[in-house]
Amino acid sequence: MAHASHPRSRKPSLSLSLLVLYASALLALLAHTASAYQVPVSDADALRQTCSGMWAGKNTSIDLTFKPNSTGIIATIFYEWSDFDRLGKDGPEKDVFGYSLKSYVCTPLAVRQSLCEDTDLGNFIVDGTAPSVQKQKMDFGTGNTQQEIISYKVNSTGYYCVGATAVPFTSRGVHASFQGLVNFHNAFKGELPGGEYPKVGFYFGLTSLYILLGFGWGYLCIKHKAELLPIQHFISGLSVLLIIEQMITWLYYSYLNSHVIEYWRLASLNGNAGETWTARALLVLEGLLDSTRNSASFFLLLIVSMGYGIVRPQLEPRTMFMVKCLTAVHLICGWLYSVGIVLLSIEAGGTWVFLFIFPLAFSLTTFMSWTLNSLNATIAHLTARKQSFKLAFFRRLWRILVIAIVVIFAFFVLSTISFSNAGTENYPSETWRYRWFLLDGWTSCLYLGVFVAIAWIFRPTGYNMRLSMSDELATGDDPEGGDMELGGAYAGFEQHGDDSDDEDDGKKTKSTGGGAQASNGGPSLTAGPPAYEADPNGGVGEESVVMFSVGDEEEEDQSMSSTGGRSSSRPVHRPTDTHHGNESEETLMAGTDKDSKQD
């Protein structure tokens, strides 16, 4: 095959280059590390508090920094979410539904309503005892000249909030206003929120794992470089793409963790345009690579399901063209979606967002339907022709896809149950530790599991070329096989044994000039085309003889039809494909010596 001429020597150098880039990026990111998740706050915010999950450690704390020129009285409060119900008191006023309205800040009106004391004016109201609450009133008068900081000690892991609101005391003639910054100092060093930080370690682990898998795959490719199948070339390319894609994803989150960037807006808090655009460029690049990975994976899965390289050497030109067109459409839609969700929000984008989503969903549905139909058709074809050996590969592939679909459905149900409570007050505090995994982590783990399983099934081995070039045929008195083909490049069913065993078996066959024929009517278990022992009369035994055909299945059908649907013990010569070497140059059949003598 033409693929066999591809250079294999580039694989180690490419893997080494990726490893060097990986280590360099890690060192560069460690050299510039921020120390806290930062959120800007001001009196103009619609929401007067900001919350984040925190991992407690030795020096964990929350700092609220007020910038210069803040004026008036500012009420501040720190608390852990479990004490949220203690904040505020029910006043005499009611809403349209008849529920009492709570007052959260002590004002002269609240004093008159007996909700707080005069000493609490300008402070938050707390109903009863709240162990985690720390409240403090800041009076800046006509304006402060330097920044002021309030600190709050965090002793245990949890979901913490900081509230700050301007208190309108009109009698003082000063309008309260402020601008500040909340710093969440977690146990780890970095700028990411506590709920997002696990992604750094997660994608670092995935990148490292893909690199190790790439080295293992490269070793197998080099070991069996003379017998690589087209599918294995595609898997090699996809492995490199996966390493790069996971590395960029890890770099993106590591960059956010090491720079002072507002996480949800991807804007530098220091006004550094370079940091802002670098973060956004990494996000766009990560999205483009993710879309490319998905399209390449669906393309590979579809052509494998069609039997490319194993059941048939090539797909029909029209079929391959349609597959490539569908891949291109899915890739372009994925790119547009990746860029669109960065540049447009759902609220601002409106119908534009759906123009990105619907084409992507349509192409994805087409891919999945076509893949499953093709896989079922290939399995039915191999079953009808009794290609048991090759059939085993595709049945394993079918099981992997079924398991993946079941896992997807299970996680969809779990996610639906989880996010059905997203509108409740306690949802963020209850799910901040693992919400990232429900959104991103489990899909990455599922993809890794499916990719490794498929790569293991179609991994390079010593019988690859025989798998793609040969078909196992039943002859003689086989009551079930008749003149139908039995699956496999050879008659052994231990297709997933150790490669060294295959090589040892091959050596034994060469040294004995034959190979042991299986007993009890079973097929030969040698790692190559079966060799046969001559019977005492000088012929070759016809019982349980398996022949291996090299050539197209249509030619095999014509040969069988010429015998009237009966098995023949006469030699049937198949066209050989000399391009693939000498291993598959002729068909071994029982009765060759007998017939030649009779002729």
TrEMBL record:
Residues 559-570 have a biased composition (Low complexity). GO terms for biological process: retrograde transport, endosome to Golgi. Its main location: membrane. Residues 48-186 form the PTM1-like N-terminal domain. One of its GO terms (cellular component) is cytosol. It comes from Pseudomicrostroma glucosiphilum. Keywords: Membrane, Signal, Transmembrane, Transmembrane helix. It is a multi-pass membrane protein. This is PTM1-member of the major facilitator superfamily. It comes from the Eukaryota. Residues 474-483 have a biased composition (Acidic residues). Residues 1-36 form the signal peptide. The keyword Nucleotidyltransferase does not apply. Residues 574-583 have a biased composition (Basic and acidic residues). It holds the Pfam family GOST_TM. InterPro entries: GOST_TM, GPR107/GPR108-like, PTM1-like_N. Residues 198-464 form the GOST seven transmembrane domain. Residues 474-599 are annotated as: Disordered. The chain crosses the membrane at residues 202-222, 234-253, 295-311, 323-346, 352-376, 397-417, 437-458. Belongs to the LU7TM family. It is found in: Membrane. The keyword Signal applies.
